[in-house]
Amino acid sequence: MPNQLKSSLIISALSALYLHSSAQHVNIYHKDWIDFNKNGKKDIYEDPKQKIASRVEDLLRQMTVQEKANQTVTLYGYGRVLKDEQPTAAWDKEIWKHGLANIDEMLNSLAYNKSAKSSFSYPFSRHAQALNNVQKWFVENTRLGIPVDFTNEGIHGLNHDRATSLPAPINIGSTWNTSLVRKAGDIIGREAKYLGYTNVYTPILDVSRDPRWGRVVETYGEDPFHIAEMGKQVVLGIQQNGVASTLKHYAVYSVPKGGRDGNARTDPHVGFREMHSLHLYPFKRVIKEAKPLGVMSSYNDYDGVPVSASSYFLQDLLRREYGFEGYVVSDSEALEFIYNKHHVAANYKDAIKQALEAGLNVRTNFDPPSTYLTPLMELIEEGGLDIKILDQRVREVLTVKFKLGLFDHPLREDIAIADKKVHTPADEEVSLQMNKESIVLLKNEQNLLPIDVNKYKRILVTGPMAEATNYTTSRYGPSNNPITTIKDGIINYGKTKALRVDYAKGVDVVDKNWPESEIIPTDLSGEELEKMAEGVRLGKESDLIIAVMGESEREVGESRSRSDLNLPGKQRDYLMKLKETGKPIVLVLVNGRPLTVNWENKYLPAIVESWFLSNQSGNVLAEMLFGGYSPSGKLPISFPKSVGQVEMNFPTKPAAQAGQPGVGPNGWGNSRVVGFLYPFGYGLSYTDFSFSNLQLAKKQIRPTDSLTVTVDIENIGKRKGAEVVQLYIKDVLSSVTTYEMDLRGFEKVELNPGEKKTLQFTILPAHLELLDQHNNWTVEPGKFELFIGNSSVNLPLKDSFEVVN
């Protein structure tokens, strides 16, 4: 049967299933408006020609208190809280007969959650029709017909069955390619649109400063400027499709004390000025420059005040200073934590009161909406919450719904086209390119890479991550796409070059005593020695060893923080035994956070950081290892040498990461490891580049002026490759302590051998401002130094300019 006919039959069958609401009402759909309240006349809120503010006020005037309350709550979709895949007659008796703010993850066949598996998630047109049916119920069966906002996750591709899969956010950050990230955002937004989703929870703008933290893998890295540039492109890409982008996690979420996750998620030890300069900077920039329609409030407190109950964060900063005009949704259970974790509310009602008064719009948790709505209604009836507060929270939610066009076109009319618009061959090419550009070459002694197939005819692939698959699919991304493991990718490539490729796992990711073994080492067991012996035997018979080591999705991710940063389990023991074979070893790291691979860096000739690639990981890695393309990724986060150095980051305050004196009256400090293992912005290539001809348009500027900077870059090697040109600025003298230098510009450029290009950067006043002693953002007069190179420590070009009044 032709696919087009099959899709048409499916859609017809779905439509036939859905008769409940259409049989209940007269026709409410007119040529250019919808009679949402079924009163037979065109109300202001139903008139597309009216201003949004007028439509919102007209609708708000018609709403009951219960209907208003319902616009402040999320219903988790099928398989999470909702038990029905499609509307039923029983819905007329459910609390959502009065409407809902949003439905989250509806029929997406959530990865690794069997209860959420649905036949409506695929084909894509079937899902679009299924969400149409749900939306139609809200339009036709609720009194005022207020549409719901269909939300979904999307941090590395839309969280939907067989949507286009992107690598993990830490990979995306490693590309340093803003135009590619914009394309990725467009894919996420377009796929959401055609599948029927109207709001995507991405990007994550958290600034990772502690690699022990489990969610480093879900961030773009540690530098606020870099994160802002990445996140801005994601928002612009999504919202150009008419779909909302919701930023998370606001705010100061990514530095829980000691890097702890799980039940902690509190107590960030961050100074006020550091909070604004580092952790709030990406949110401020992205909100001002990309105008996202959503923000997710975080679980944690700051300086004793839960963010989700803080008018300072949700009103003063977010709406008044940053100009946010969307709605704030709580991270799941963030509202409840005000009461049951932070203990600053006397009871649940008090927590609801604090959150709504502070500026939270929509509560989200993994339980029925009535759990929240019942105490909210009691609170209102008791006079505990001013109805004007509720009105304002609802006003902000409804404004977003009008901006999204939900009151003009609540139902998708082009259902069948979803099968042609979601996960296209062109989308797969973008994903492939993003995977390639995210790989970082950390070490390449004597140019071992790319692998010379004429020299190395027999190769051993070994290590616990060579056959792993689950790390390519997370709770927050696409699922059910075919996966090529790293082992299979290398084997398949080897066949094209007449190579013999053997495989032995050799060691597990963790040992049976892990995580206790991170602090109490144990001897190798007989079983472990036996596994390693097989790999060592094959290694001796091979010309080269590719060891694929690291962390699985069980050691890194949400609620998966670590106490140590070495390779977990007995992986290093196995590498030591492989080294004794005398054969060259290429270490491929598969991990979601910086690791303290000091021994590996000292004794192994080649190290590749692949992070968590998507389902194409095996083919992408094999092509890179054998020279199909030159690696171009750069680290978006520093690698410390020891967990004892944590926190150790870029940017840093002057001398904050310096060593200890070895001479003089306090010269007993030769006892501490200093310096980065790999610095921020670092990454090698198969070719070489040179920088020259740094030119500043002016040597003096006023505080309100911009400054144009040009520089030449040339590929002086023998292969085609891409380099990331990085620009840093240092404020030489300031009224408050500033960072040693700040990243203030970067551009990725691809060059053929011998090719040269001139790049232009623009330094804006905002790039020079600081938060002064009076808590005002200002550009202070004085000297600024400017550096250009290809990492935070390799900056061959330097100049300076002066800001004058």
UniProtKB/TrEMBL annotation:
Pfam families, sorted: Fn3-like (PF14310), Glyco_hydro_3 (PF00933), Glyco_hydro_3_C (PF01915)
Molecular-function GO term, any one: beta-glucosidase activity
Domain of life: Bacteria
Keyword annotations: Hydrolase
Protein name: Glycosyl hydrolase
Annotated Fibronectin type III-like domain residues: 723-792
Keyword check for Zinc: no
Family: Belongs to the glycosyl hydrolase 3 family.
Key word Magnesium present: no
One GO-annotated biological process of the protein: carbohydrate metabolic process
